[in-house]
Predict the structure.
Amino acid sequence: MKVLRAADHKRMPWKNGGGETVEIAISPEGAGLADFDWRVSTATVASDGPFSIFPGIDRTLSILDGKGMRLLIEGREPVLLTQASEPLTFAGDIAVSATLPDGTITDLNVMSRRGAVRHAVARHFIDGEKSLEFAKGIFLLFCVNGALTARTGAQSVELDAGDAMLLEESDGGKLDLSGQALCYAISIERA
């Protein structure tokens, strides 16, 4: 179990130069935007505009803060993504643009290289105790706000807002959570 503290996340400009992203985790470690297998990051979006194009990448977006973002995704009906919306998955190599009807937002962006790995994202509200099952592969739990304790087997870790825990190449199992927090569970498996 590896703990990824908020203070240690890497800040970098967007691929298209339109803003800044905070990289939580990437694989392989040290990979760049052109050669990662998977990547988890957050971004603050303060103005309308196009998304960066990522050939061969699938993405999932979730709104963490703000009133929402309207997405125009090539080949789909426009969608308003809000904090109440389920995570939204789409191809990273098609034209996507965003408008902010009610101001700045912060999003969670999970990306994986199509054909090499695939990912799934689920939102969880923790109020007391909750158990999550995780499958074989890679599992990342990102704490958006609040605080929680995560336990699996004999290992235990405390997470605060912005922190994450990463289980690499796990055999699957159960994660026991306690506390009060909003978190996102991200599962990544080889294709």
Summary: The chain has no helices and 16 strands. The two ends are 23 Å apart (CA to CA).
